[in-house]
Amino acid sequence: MSETILQLQGIYKNFGSVEAAKNISINVSKELFALLGPSGSGKTTMLRIIAGLETPDKGRVLINGRDVTNLPPYKRGIGMVFQDFLLFPHKTVKENIVFPLKMQGKDESTKEEQYQWVSQLVHLEGLDERFPYQLSGGQKQRVALARGLVSRPSVLLLDEPLANLDRELRKEMEIEIRRFQLELGIPFIYVTHNQEEALTMSDRMAIMRLGQLEQIGDKFELYHHPQTSFVASFLGSTNAMQGEIKAVDNGCIVVDWDGVSLRAPYKDDFKIGMTVDYFLKSEKITIHPPGQKPDDHGRTVIEGRLRDTIFKGQYADYLISLKNDNEIIVSDVPTISPALRNATVSISWPSEAPDVFPADGGLA
Amino acid sequence: MLFFFVLPLLTTVVISFWRTESYTIIHDWNIDNYVVLLTKHTYLVFLGRSILMATAVTLISLIYSWPIAYFIAYAGGRYKLVLVLLTSAPFFTGIILRVTALQQIFGPIGIINTALINLGLKPINAFMYSNFASGMGLVYLWIPFMILAIYLSLLNFNFDLLEVAKVNGASPIKAFFEVTLPLNWIGTAVGIVLVFVPTLAASITPRFLGGVNGALFGNILAHQFGATGTWALGSAMGVVLFFVSIIAIFLVWKTVDLRRSGFTGGDI
Ligand SMILES: Nc1ncnc2c1ncn2[C@@H]1O[C@H](COP(=O)(O)OP(=O)(O)OP(=O)(O)O)[C@@H](O)[C@H]1O
Ligand SMILES: [Mg+2]
């Protein structure tokens, strides 16, 4: 990985009794770094601390090795794109975009040059003299991005920049933003609570919860090898189960989930009698047509009733009712006919598919 | 509207084209009053003084009102409205008491000078009956209108835009002139008019605080309706004031560019 541009070291921030940042340390290089977490987890607070709009109670912010913790925002040379665009309503598109250059006292020819460059980059040609109220949502978003990029900042912060756009436009902008990042070669820190967005766009990502970082890493790593229950349940479409370890067999544990046996790889901290959370992404499960029974070697195989099929095009979600009255969602290729509703089917998954963690407290 | 606004104005205009002799109005159409006003040095000097005074009072009010209105709108929390209404305190006691209170402060034996004398220093003449004292009195009197106008404008101001400005490299001062002031210019312009126009016609405050040399156009005007009984000339002076006010309003209006005010609700 290339060199580190932005470093957060042991950041703490409290608002009254709310811990909005708790021992946050991150290094970000020239990459698209996504910050994902539920509402109120402290994502915006973190961006605001990086931008200098909020001072941390403890810890340091470094940009290119320089400690900027005590610098005011206007001396940090950071670009930021806000959730609700926040364009200056009294300035034209062009004036909005060159604002950062104007503040830096750049001369007219530099302003013009940078403006031409950025307005082409974000495809804003011909809108120079419009006022923000004369723009569509997507155009506003582009202006906000252009304003964030025009001065070629050392870091660009994006706080849910696509949250106010419709789905079509969001898809398009996701790809665009990714392109800007590659073209500019600066770190983008991208806050979102839309995991699809984070997974599509990012190189690495961090999951935040209650002011803390749950896990940082490569997006595949986070998706396939979550390190905490929260990350396992938060990412993807996940079936969450809980049960007691009944046996250890051949490098696997067998978990009793309300009378249904589930298999998972053995880990050192597992003991018989321990209660565990068992998370299984729905696409890691295979559905077998009625009458076919898979080989249960190294797999968990259970039978259930196909309660409903939700056809999604490339795949389908099958809702399977189990004999223990629980339900499992399976995402698989849409091969099972919807006419088979209420048929008995088998579902199965390899033993290493689930993510299993000791439940809170560990013991039942 | 017609009755209260146009009729008195019309009467004034009509009278200003008549003349007065020995305390009676003579219905004899002429423009002598205006000739006198526009050629006689003294009247022009008083008018000039009043315009200068109104300008100074407006500027001082502007400089004081902004931080006060800003503070209330930004940090007033749930006490905003009460705080802004309390700025009307100068009006609680009526004009005479208010002016007398100011005399207690600025006058020859007022608080400031008494303190100076007690400290063995020379009293400051500027504080005694002078244009300075009436200027301060006028600021004190009209500033609530300015504060209120700016405050109401700030209520609709999105303070987040200042954070945007700062992240994009604007120091607090630049952010004020680039973002806050332009987006609150309509309110500020209203405040300017609400202070400038009444100050231009002021007579009571300068009479009590201005002393012998502090007379303004408004005092001379009032005089025409009192001791001298030259109502026609007084009316002409009123008409002149009216036009100066209209010009001032026009000039202020010209500074407002709706598209640059952030206002998108159509014409105002
Ligand atoms: N200025 C503030 N004063 C008091 N509490 C605050 C302040 N700013 C944030 N908080 C609190 O800090 C916590 C984190 O807020 P933050 O805005 O960072 O969350 P977020 O992850 O951005 O959420 P969302 O996805 O809803 O935008 C929340 O509990 C919030 O209420
Ligand atoms: Mg947020």
Quick summary:
Chain A is of the alpha+beta class and 364 residues long.
How would you describe the overall organization of this protein?
The complex is a heterodimer of chains A (364) and B (268). Chain A is built from 8 helices and 20 strands. Chain A is an alpha+beta fold and 364 residues long. Chain A folds into 2 domains: 226 residues, P-loop containing nucleotide triphosphate hydrolases (Rossmann fold, 3-Layer(aba) Sandwich), CATH 3.40.50.300; 127 residues, OB fold (Dihydrolipoamide Acetyltransferase, E2P) (Beta Barrel). In chain A, the strands form 4 sheets. A 6-stranded mixed sheet of chain A has the order 6-7-8-3-9-10, sandwiched between helices. Chain A has a 5-stranded antiparallel sheet with strand order 13-12-11-14-20. In chain A, strands 15-19-16-17-18 form a 5-stranded antiparallel sheet, with no helix packed on it. The longest helix of chain A has 18 residues. The two termini of chain A are 43 Å apart. Chain B has one domain: Orthogonal Bundle (MetI-like fold). Chain B has 268 residues and is mostly helical. The longest helix of chain B is centred in the first third of the chain and has 35 residues. Chain B has a two-stranded antiparallel ribbon. Chain B is built from 13 helices and 2 strands, in the order αββαααααααααααα. The model of chain B has no long low-confidence stretch (mean pLDDT 87). Chains A and B meet through strand 6 and helix 2 of A and helix 8 and helix 9 of B. The site of adenosine-5'-triphosphate has 12 residues of chain A, from strand 2 and helix 1. The site of magnesium ion has 3 residues of chain A, from helix 1.
